[in-house]
Design brief:
This protein has 998 residues and is α+β, with helices and mostly antiparallel strands. Among the domains are: 351-522, Beta-Lactamase, CATH 3.30.450; 527-633, 2-Layer Sandwich (Beta-Lactamase), CATH 3.30.450.20; 642-782, 2-Layer Sandwich (Alpha-Beta Plaits), CATH 3.30.70.270; 795-996, Alpha-Beta Barrel (TIM Barrel), CATH 3.20.20.450. Helix content is 50%, strand content 18%. It has 36 helices and 29 strands. Strands 22-23-24-25-26-27-28-29 form an 8-stranded mixed β-barrel. Strands 7, 8, 9, 10, 11, 12 and 13 form a 7-stranded antiparallel β-sheet that branches. Strands 3-2-1-6-5-4 form a 6-stranded antiparallel β-sheet, with helices on both faces. Helix 4 (56-69) packs antiparallel against helix 5 (76-92), helix 9 runs parallel beside helix 11 (192-208) and helix 10 packs antiparallel against helix 11. It starts with a helix and ends in a 5-residue tail after the last strand. The relative contact order is 0.03.
């Protein structure tokens, strides 16, 4: 069984010391598996065993140890359980002051919204206050329980405790009220123990009222069937015997005493024993005055017992004092550790930024929340050896400062001479933190920023901490405050810890800057190396190419030497194998050989030299590959073949079979040509050029699809190589081509999806590519937003498709505001499960979109009343209009209705003019999406006299755009009002149903 199963088996048992070994074995398993939660739970089981066996000292030791070590936030419930057991044990040990302290600690962590936890704490406090003779506070806590919705069991217990406290204070009326309520409740719960305790309280009330006869009857009812008594009942028996003695019923008192004498002897409670023996002695003394001599031994035993009790009392007092001291120290340490942990945590969060300035700003804001200071100054003297070329930059005589004040950071530079007389100068001379209290030491220290003394500015305390790198000071952090508490031991410690973390971060940033500088220098040095560099590990012969070289060789960044050799010309392979000899002897090499790259063979030079460590070990070879000759096509016939969509479908099926292999990975890239104006031979020339470009620079497995797009598949997942390939393709495409002595430029977009890194569902890849290509980015890598868009698109299409089955749409009308107040509405539709105000058309698959828009137009024509005024703006796509025109959907009979409709065309198509020509026959007004206007020929716009345009979002450079639209006398449908544009129709928030506009 696992840890959890064993633990729950143990919790079902009545645990004894016999189970101790099982629990210890479970603890050892928890330690091995590092299961901290169940390790604590095992300790709770051990504590409970010790409590049941009255081994309170052992139980308390385990409790205190865990309370001091446990994370009270992560294991909050378990922490509270330890506290509760510690409180119970200390109450049993009559160490009420220590119990109070642990109860106070518990009050800091309990969930105030948890009624049971809060009421349990009130009950514990009531017990403690009662034993500390603070009856009023005890009553206050018990009353708090009654006001906090206790369950019936807790309410009965609370009422019985209140009754006892009232009786102790001789408050008869209050005691009767709570007792009557308690009796009703315990009988309702059928609580035998509660009924017995109420009987006892009733007896005490009778004694308080001097009604000894009824009190005696109540006691008799309690003890009539009891032969063995626990400590709780023995204390009640003592009161019963005392009552009988007071009533001069010595024989009866004697019978009761003898009956329970064995129970008394077994008890470990010395107080109960003492009271019982005293009563027993009284009975004999009062019953027969002639036996005094015989009772001397008993009296002597009682005297010895009382001395022992006195010693025990003193031990309890000493123990309480020691516990209080230990608890105070532990509590102080715990608070300090918690604050240090908080300092470390918030410093870590604040230092996540990767710029020096942002780190210092966020660090200051975070620390200010924890430790109160008024201002901070960070000084950077020099970055030392981390400057790659320090002599080149004229900064050796300057220091950089960041002054934090009121949530802002001010950056300045000062000469080294300005440091004279400042706290920074003191730090440079000591290289040790400096803490100044100007109330005690009013020395004239100058403020570097204002050049005034801090005393003049009202600063009371300064804590300055050096920032070191390799034991040399490179800067400092100085904190100022008008409170001397800044330099208290606790605040100083936390600031030192936080500043040490800042020191590590700044050094890290300096190293990163150093590495970036070296990288920039190296890139500049290798800029002329068109092919790139590589690294080779001499033992494993593993080769790692630079991005440029991997792209040139059309290989992954990391490959084995064997895989690399597979591409080398067979005749030249005997040249390449000489590398092994050079590597074994640790010598540089310079070779020339031919290598296959895609469908071409290239002559290259390969030069490399070893990097040898200080210990004389060859760590790696670094080499440079350069192209020496022109490429030679391996197969001229194959180079002219263009793979089409049918080839792609077959290849996709082949790849699908490979997906069962866990090691298989591949990358799909899709390219689309955005220029719709390219037609005829020019378009074919561009398509062929892009195909060859993608095939050469991305993958041999490149396909031309029926929609004019290109799919290219590469069986790697290395994002750096992929990025390099895509950017190379886009960069070359931007240069355009020459066609019939004319430059032709075109826009190419790209998207990438990797399997299985981006998706484990191979069938989703094409859908992801389509969504990626519809973003505004020219090159789109798969991300969470695309995945969310995909899921949303699927949901929208499912909802709309379900609605289309009913061949009905509920029309909705967004009220529009016109200049002449003529009724106008933008047509929407309601799909169950979708927000009608959301533009769902963009997410619809083409077939579903066409069906939806066709049904929407049909529904609108049915709803239009030609006798009523109104204009209706209906969004539609070119694909839908194209289909409607082919199906002769529009008829002359509906001309009157058409005159009330403004078709808002969302997209643009190559045959857009043909669509406009067909629609113009039916007197339908046309508004075109503003984002598509630039793609429509100006002659077309003038010829067909569009009604206007519509804008779904805001306008960039709107004044220029509005001037052009005004010149064309276009109506604009917009979300906001443009005061300087007269012919605007503005959307409102009012969405109406069909019956509301009739």
């Amino acid at each position: 069984m696992n840890i959890k199963e064993v633990y729950y088996e143990l919790t079902k048992k009545d645990l004894t010391l016999d189970d101790f070994k099982t629990i210890v074995d479970l603890k050892n398993q928890c330690i091995i598996e590092m299961n901290q939660e169940y390790l604590y739970l095992c300790d709770i089981l051990i504590i409970d065993i010790y409590i049941n066996e009255n081994l309170f000292d052992d139980a308390l030791n385990i409790c205190i140890k865990n309370i001091n070590n446990i994370d009270s936030i992560v294991f909050k419930k378990i922490y509270i359980s330890f506290l509760e057991r510690a409180i119970y044990i200390l109450i049993q040990k009559k160490n009420y002051k220590s119990a109070y302290r642990y109860a106070f600690m518990k009050s800091k962590v309990i969930d105030l919204d948890n009624i049971d936890e809060v009421n349990r704490w009130y009950l514990e406090m009531a017990y403690i206050y009662a034993e500390l003779n603070q009856k009023e506070k005890a009553l206050m806590n018990l009353k708090a329980i009654l006001n906090n919705y206790p369950n019936d069991n807790l309410k009965a217990l609370t009422l019985s405790n209140m009754t006892k406290l009232y009786i102790d204070q001789m408050m008869v009326a209050e005691a009767k009220n709570t007792l009557n309520e308690c009796i009703t409740l315990v009988y309702k719960l059928n609580d035998e123990e509660g009924i017995t305790y109420c009987e006892y309280l009733n007896a005490k009330l009778y004694v308080l009222e001097n009604n000894h006869k009824l009190a005696k009857q109540s006691f008799q009812d309690i003890f009539k069937n009891l032969n063995q008594l626990s400590d709780d009942y023995l204390s009640i028996a003592n009161e019963y015997i005392s009552l009988l003695i007071d009533m001069d019923l010595y024989d009866e008192a004697y019978r009761v005493s003898i009956k329970y004498l064995k129970s008394v002897e077994k008890s470990n409670d010395l107080y109960i024993k003492k009271d019982y023996y005293k009563n027993y002695l009284k009975i004999f003394i009062l019953k027969n005055k002639n036996v005094r001599e015989d009772l001397k031994q008993l009296l002597k035993a009682i005297e010895v017992l009382e001395n022992e009790i006195e010693k025990t009392d003193q031990n309890i007092i000493n123990e309480t004092s020691e516990d209080d001291k230990n608890l105070e120290v532990l509590s102080r340490i715990r608070d300090l550790v918690a604050k240090v942990e908080k300092t470390i945590n918030i410093s870590n969060l604040a230092l996540k930024n990767e710029s020096e300035r942002e780190c210092l700003l966020e660090f200051s804001k975070s620390i200010e929340e924890l430790i109160n200071f008024d201002e901070a100054l960070y000084v950077v003297l020099t970055k030392g050896d981390l400057e790659v070329i320090p002599g080149f930059l004229n900064n050796f005589n300057m220091v950089k400062t960041y002054n934090y004040k009121k949530q802002r950071l001010y950056e300045r530079e000062f000469s080294f001479n300005n440091l004279s007389g400042t706290i920074v100068e003191m730090l440079i001379s000591t290289n040790h933190e400096v803490a100044l209290d100007f109330n005690e030491t009013p020395i004239p220290v100058k403020n570097l920023i204002t050049e005034k003394s801090y005393a003049e500015e009202g600063v009371k305390a300064i804590l300055a901490i050096p920032l070191n790198m390799e034991k040399e000071m490179f800067g400092c952090a100085v904190f100022f405050s008008d409170e001397t508490s800044l330099i208290d031991q606790e605040n100083s410690l936390n600031l030192k810890i936080a500043t040490k973390m800042l020191e590590f971060k700044l050094v890290s940033l300096f190293y990163q800057e150093n590495i970036r500088s070296q990288k920039a220098i190296m890139q500049a040095m290798t800029a002329d190396l068109k092919e790139g560099i590589y690294f080779m590990e001499p033992e494993t012969r593993k080769i790692m190419f630079s991005e440029e070289l991997a792209s040139f060789l059309q290989q992954e960044s990391n490959i084995s030497k064997t895989d690399y050799e597979a591409n080398i010309n067979e005749d030249d392979l005997k040249i390449y194998v000489n590398i092994d000899k050079f590597v074994e002897s640790g010598e540089p090499y310079n070779l020339e050989y031919r290598i296959r790259i895609g469908e071409k063979e290239v002559l290259i030079s390969d030069k490399a030299r070893p990097y040898i460590s200080k210990e004389g070990v060859i760590k790696f070879y670094i080499g440079i590959i350069g192209k020496l000759g022109n490429e030679v096509l391996l197969s001229d016939e194959e180079s002219g073949i263009i793979l089409k969509e049918e080839d792609y479908r077959n290849y996709f099926e082949e790849l699908s079979e490979k997906t069962h292999d866990l090691e298989f990975k591949c990358t799909f890239s899709k390219f689309i040509l955005e220029d719709k104006e390219l037609t005829g031979p020019k378009y074919e020339r561009v398509i062929n050029y892009i195909y060859r470009l993608v095939k050469e620079h991305f993958s041999e497995k490149t396909f031309l699809l029926n929609d004019g797009g290109f799919i290219s598949v590469l069986e790697i997942n290395d994002q750096r190589v992929i990025d390099r390939k895509i950017k190379t393709i886009l960069g070359i495409a931007d240069q355009g081509i020459i066609y019939e002595n004319t430059a032709v430029h075109f826009d190419l977009k790209a998207a990438v999806v990797r399997f299985p890194r981006d998706t484990y569902n191979f069938q989703e890849i094409e859908e992801f590519l389509e969504i990626s290509l519809n973003t505004s980015n020219r090159y789109q890598i798969f991300n969470d937003d695309i995945h969310k868009h995909y899921l949303k698109k699927k949901a929208i299409n499912a909802c709309v498709l379900e609605q289309l089955k009913f061949e009905t749409l509920e029309l909705l009308f967004l009220k529009l505001k016109t200049k002449d107040n003529y009724p106008a509405y933008e047509v929407r539709y309601n799909i169950p499960g979708l927000n009608p105000k959301e533009n769902i058309s963009e997410a619809l698959d083409l077939k579903i979109k066409i069906s939806t828009e066709k049904l929407l137009l049909k529904s609108l024509l049915k709803a239009i009343d030609v006798k009523r005024e109104g204009r209706f703006y209906l969004h539609i796509s070119c694909a839908t209009l194209d289909l409607l025109l082919k199906d002769d959907f529009f008829t002359k009979n509906d001309i009157e209705k058409y005159r009330k409709i403004v078709l808002c065309i969302d997209d643009c198509a190559p045959h857009f003019e043909k669509i406009l020509s067909g629609i113009s026959l039916y007197e339908l007004k046309i508004n075109v999406n503003y984002e598509k206007l630039e793609k429509i020929n100006l002659g077309t716009l003038v010829k067909y006299k569009l009604n206007g345009t519509f804008i779904n979002n805001g306008l960039e450079e709107y004044s220029k755009a509005l001037t052009i639209l005004k010149a064309l006398n276009y109506e604009i449908l917009v979300n906001i009002n443009y005061p300087d544009y007269d012919n605007a129709v503005i959307r409102t928030e009012e969405l109406l149903k069909a019956e509301q506009i009739r």
